[in-house]
Structures are given as C-alpha cells and as structure tokens.
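Please fill in the sequence for the structure shown.

STRUCTURE ENCODING:
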C-alpha cells in the first residue's frame, strides 16, 4: 500500500521536539537548574560562567600555606596551557578563610571547559572568551515578565513557567480600614483604584510602590544610558514586535501600576500615592497567585511612595516622549501632581501593619526621595524651580550606593548621565573610588565589592549597585581600573566567593535552585517549577532571620558564608525585583560596553593598576605571580560539552528510529 509521510509527520515532529528539548536541557548557559541540596564545597573559586579574554582573571584558593603553591590551568581537553605560583593573601575578614590568589590573566585564548588545579583542589569548569553576559542580560530581564501580576503567563512566552493570571481583582481595590502598629486607626475610603498590572515584589505576591520605584528606575536608566543595547523582539513577551524595545514594554507594565496607585482628584490626600497593595495574610508557600481576592487592600499613602511615583513618572515622560506622546504627557501630569502633593505632606511616613501579609518598606527619612524626584522632574521639564530645589539640597548629591530606602544616588546618576552634570559625575567617581578601596583592602580575599558591613538582607544587590557605579565611573573617566572592578563584581556573584556558589540560577555548576518564591518552589511533582535562568538570590546575610537559616546553622557563621539555598530561607534566599534589576543593568553593560573592550587586546596601558594587581598580601612580602605558558602539543580547538554530544546522539537515534518505523510501514 502507498504510505503518506503526512500520516507520520506528527510522530516525527514529536520526536524532533523531544530531542530539541533534551539538547536544550544539556546546554550550560540557560538550562533551568534541577532540584539539588546546597552543599558548600572546598575547591578553587572561579567565575563558573566565564571570563572575557582580556579581563582580569583571578581565582581564589583556600589554603593555610604561608608559601606560594604551584597551579596549573588546563583546557577542555585536559591539556596544561599555563602554570604558575599562587600569591599568598592571608585571612579574608568576612569568611575566615586563609586564601591564595591564582592570577591567570595572562592566558587569553578563547575556549570552554578550562579548569584550575592547585594543592589537590580543582575549580569548576569555565569559559574564556565571549562569556554568557548577552544571554544573562535577556534572562535577567525576562524575570520581570515571569513575575507579572494580572496576566496569564502563556506557554509561547513563559515556557516551563506558565501559570494562570493572578490577582485580576486588583483592577478594583479599596483602602484597608484598621489600626496600624502605633494604634492609629485608618478609615476606609469611598473610592476604588485600578491597581492592576505591575510586578510581584519578591517571594510574595505583594506590590509595593517604593520597591517598584527603584526597580523601574534601574531598567529605564539602563535604557537611557544606551538605548541601542535593547531591541524589540528580544525578550519574547506578548508586546514583542510592536516597534518598541521590549525593555520599555516591560517597564511600562510596572509604570501603569504605579500610576494606578495615585489618590484620585477630589479625595482627601489627592495626588499622594498609596504605599503598597497586599493581602491580610501571607500566601501559602509554595502556591499559585489566586485569580481574585477579596482580602487584598490598598494601604495608606506615604510621602516616600508619592515621591517614587513623581521620580519614575518624570523619567517615564522623558523616555516615552518620542515613542508615545500621550503616555508621556500622562506620566508628566502624574509626576507633577505627586510632587505637589508630597510638598504639601512632606512627613507622611509609611504606616506599619506587622500582623498582616506584607512587608513594611518603612522609611523615616525622605530628603533623599525629594532630591531624586526634583532631579528627575528638572531633567523632564527644564523647570528652574526643580533645579533650585535639588541644588539647595546639594548635601544629597550622593557619593554612596543606592537601595529602596536610599534613593539620592538615583537622582545623582540621572543628573550625571542624562544631564551630564559635572558635580554629579564627580560624586559618582568619588564613590567608585571608595568601592575600589573596599576591593583593594588587604583583608578582602575574594575581591568582593561588598564591604564588611554590607552583608545584609539582599547583600548581592549591594554588590550589583556598586558595580553600576563602577561602570559609570568608567564611562565618565575612561580609566580601565573601574571597568575591571565592575567585572570583578560579577565574578563574585558567579562563584568566586567563599561558598563556591553561583547566586544566579542556571549559570554555573552549582547555582541557585531553591529560591524563596511562591511559584518557583522547585517541586515539579506538585506543579511548581524550579527558578528560570537569570534569577538572583538575596545572598549572604550576617544577621539571618528565618527558621531555615537557623536550622542550617547560619547563626554565628562568618557573614560571607551565612547563606543557604533553601526555599524557606527568606532572609538569605529570597528574590526581588529591586535585586534583579541591577543584575540586568550590569549584565547589559558587560555585554554591550565591556565585551568589545575586554574581548580583544588592550589598546593602551591601564592608567591605574587594576584591583587584581594592586592588592598586597597582609601576611607576607608581596611576591610577583609567576605564570608560564605551556606550548600545546596539538592545535587547540574549543571543546564540545558532553551534554551537547549526548543530546546529539539522542537526536540521531530518535530520527533513526522514526525512519525505521516509516520504512517498515511502507514495506508492509
């Protein structure tokens, strides 16, 4: 009989898709991590993802030896390509480790599967060359789509992380009536707001204006700094293909929510912004966001939230002016209305409701928010009144890092980048020098950008926000030491740390797999997937404050080691929009600005020695690090990963099986 191939096409396509899925899972860059317990390992600490060819490349060996130790660098085929001796650095203050450095910066040949060995220890394999920052930029940005409220995450966009729409009832919410922690009773309001959209804040399903503000600003600042780095159709989100860069479509999802939190005209406190929106109790862990909730409320307005709205809406007005003039005008109106309202209520601090199901995000100092909002409004309007205000508050021109409760640096950065203000640029460079000083401290054995006092809740965002300021200092000065130090910050996050652990899911041999997140509970049998690639863990916390951290023995541990990859450890392993935003910013910078520079030879000597070569040993006379290239015995070629080889074999096997089935049917 005559056999039609069409009849068997579904089977063949099915086999093909299965094989593609197998190969995708074998790939090291963006595969979702599989469930595995966190087990700190004693080994040579490296950036488990990789290094640009001409970037500083320093690994850390833990050893009590007071004399240098021999080390070798091997390529993916096991061939020794470089040898040398360690530099003895001595004790690292925040981990308690006695460390040596292995500086293999001299080796620049691209390839995969490199490993370092010394003192019976070996590193995880890593890449030298282009690295994965382009993929990480996309993954870090997709975090936001995957945490959208009020929209179903469909398979064509979300893949394994599909879920129903959550909290569609946020389109009609009203005020909470009850007493706060001081006993003050807040009345109900006679209006409802459409507070739909926006991103879920962190591991919970709350939405908070102050944390949304800094996260949104960070994405918009990345775009304002270099619009060409962000394209339409880059993120595979529902808006892709509309002619607008996907990062702006994503940012608009949050901006619409912030606009919706403003008290309407004619009401008491008109123009102010409600501080937050969440339920009366914490949602189950793990658990899907419910489609509707009648116990979810607006909480009282605050000056801080109102100024977050003013600042980000002014930024919105600038960015969308040539893209969507109507939306730009709407943002500017909201921004100026919020500024006026905050000026009339300059000390309305956030009310706290500790017994209810949301975080407080309380901030008792708002001078920094006033400075930030005035700077953004001036840059959006040119109105000298706003300039007069932020100039009078010049003490806020910040030479420090940012967080949701310290936003003056955001205004400083906007003035420096958008306004090209010389004083603001000087402030950024001044703080970048302080970060370099931290990294160059003789007791900082892991070259961490986090200061000894910086191992707090969300310490990894401290590292990233400091890396942003280092990167900007390079923009403003052209001095390579700042660019080199910015890459060192990512080296820390991707495994060159006291835990030999990549805090970014899907990147590295052992990476974040069990974040404190309601949906990404990593219980596949119950329908809760592992985290998608590109998710940042909060990181080591010197004051862990959850039962899981206590059970893991973290209390009393050195701060740089006070971390556990456990879904219940919210004080060390939560995720958050204001942490993933600087991850996306830095990954984009390393991909679009650093890659062309660090992938090729330096065109001129570094003006000032990079941090990796200026630090001195606290316990021994500084010794030059010796590194000797080993001539290859055969031509070097990029190694092929075992996962790819296995995936390829499966592909061929499945197609062969399909062909046999078809041939046998035809024969019959």
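FILLED IN BY: designer on duty
SEQUENCE:
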């Amino acid at each position: 009989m005559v056999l039609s191939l069409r009849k068997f096409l579904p089977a063949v396509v099915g086999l093909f898709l299965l094989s593609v899925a197998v190969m995708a899972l074998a790939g090291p860059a963006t595969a979702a991590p599989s469930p595995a317990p966190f087990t700190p390992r004693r080994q040579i600490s490296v950036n488990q993802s990789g290094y640009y060819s001409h970037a500083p490349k320093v690994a850390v060996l833990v050893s009590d030896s007071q004399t240098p130790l021999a080390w070798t660098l091997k390529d993916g085929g096991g061939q020794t390509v470089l040898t040398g001796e360690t530099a003895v650095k001595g004790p690292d203050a925040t981990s308690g480790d006695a460390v040596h450095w292995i500086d293999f910066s001299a080796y620049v040949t691209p390839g995969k599967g490199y490993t370092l060995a010394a003192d019976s220890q070996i590193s995880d394999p890593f890449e030298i060359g282009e690295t994965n920052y382009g993929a990480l930029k996309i993954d870090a940005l997709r975090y936001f789509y995957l945490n959208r409220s009020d929209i179903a995450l469909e398979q064509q966009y979300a893949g394994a992380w599909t879920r129903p729409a959550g909290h569609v009832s946020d389109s009609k919410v009203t005020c909470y009536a009850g007493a706060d922690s001081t006993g003050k009773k807040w009345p109900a309001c006679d209006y409802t707001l459409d507070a739909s959209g926006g991103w879920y804040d962190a591991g919970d399903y709350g939405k908070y204006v102050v944390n949304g503000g800094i996260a949104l600003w960070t994405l918009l600042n990345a775009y304002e700094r270099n619009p060409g780095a962000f394209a339409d159709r880059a993120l595979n989100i529902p808006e892709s293909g509309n002619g607008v860069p996907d990062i702006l479509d994503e940012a608009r999802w949050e901006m619409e929510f912030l606009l919706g939190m403003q008290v309407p005209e004619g009401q008491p406190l008109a123009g102010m912004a409600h501080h937050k929106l969440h339920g009366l109790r914490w949602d189950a862990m793990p658990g899907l966001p419910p489609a509707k909730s009648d116990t979810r409320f607006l909480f009282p307005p605050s000056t801080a939230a109102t100024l977050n709205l003013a600042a980000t809406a002014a930024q919105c007005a600038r960015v969308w002016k040539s893209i969507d003039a109507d939306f730009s005008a709407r943002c500017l109106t909201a921004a100026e209305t919020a500024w006026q309202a905050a000026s009339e209520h300059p000390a309305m601090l956030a009310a706290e409701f500790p017994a209810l199901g949301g975080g407080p995000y309380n901030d008792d100092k708002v001078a920094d928010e006033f400075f930030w909002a005035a700077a953004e409004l001036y840059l959006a309007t040119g109105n000298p009144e706003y300039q007069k205000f932020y100039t009078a508050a010049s003490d806020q021109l910040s030479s420090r890092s940012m967080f949701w409760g310290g936003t003056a640096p955001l205004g400083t950065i906007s003035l420096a980048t958008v306004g090209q203000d010389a004083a603001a640029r000087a402030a950024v460079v001044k703080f970048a020098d302080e970060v370099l000083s931290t990294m160059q401290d003789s007791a900082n054995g892991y070259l961490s950008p986090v200061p000894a006092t910086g191992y707090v809740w969300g310490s990894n965002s401290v590292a990233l926000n400091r890396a942003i300021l280092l990167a900007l200092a390079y923009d403003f000065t052209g001095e390579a030491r700042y660019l080199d130090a910015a890459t060192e910050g990512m080296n820390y996050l991707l495994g060159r740390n006291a835990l030999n652990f990549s805090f970014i899911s899907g990147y590295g041999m052992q990476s974040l797999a069990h974040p404190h997140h309601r949906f990404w509970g990593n219980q596949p049998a119950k329908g809760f997937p592992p985290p998608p690639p590109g998710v940042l863990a909060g990181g080591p916390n010197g004051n862990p404050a959850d039962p899981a951290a206590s059970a893991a023995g973290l209390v009393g541990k050195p701060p740089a080691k006070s971390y556990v990859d456990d879904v219940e450890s919210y004080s060390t392993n939560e995720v958050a929009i204001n942490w993933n935003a600087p991850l996306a910013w830095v990954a984009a910078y390393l991909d679009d600005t650093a890659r062309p520079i660090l992938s090729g030879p330096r065109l001129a000597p570094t003006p000032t020695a990079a941090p990796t070569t200026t630090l001195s040993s606290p316990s021994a006379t500084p010794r030059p690090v010796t590194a000797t290239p080993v001539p290859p015995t055969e031509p070097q070629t990029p190694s092929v990963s075992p996962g790819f080889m296995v995936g390829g074999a499966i592909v061929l096997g499945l197609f062969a099986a399909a062909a046999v089935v078809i041939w046998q049917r035809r024969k019959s």
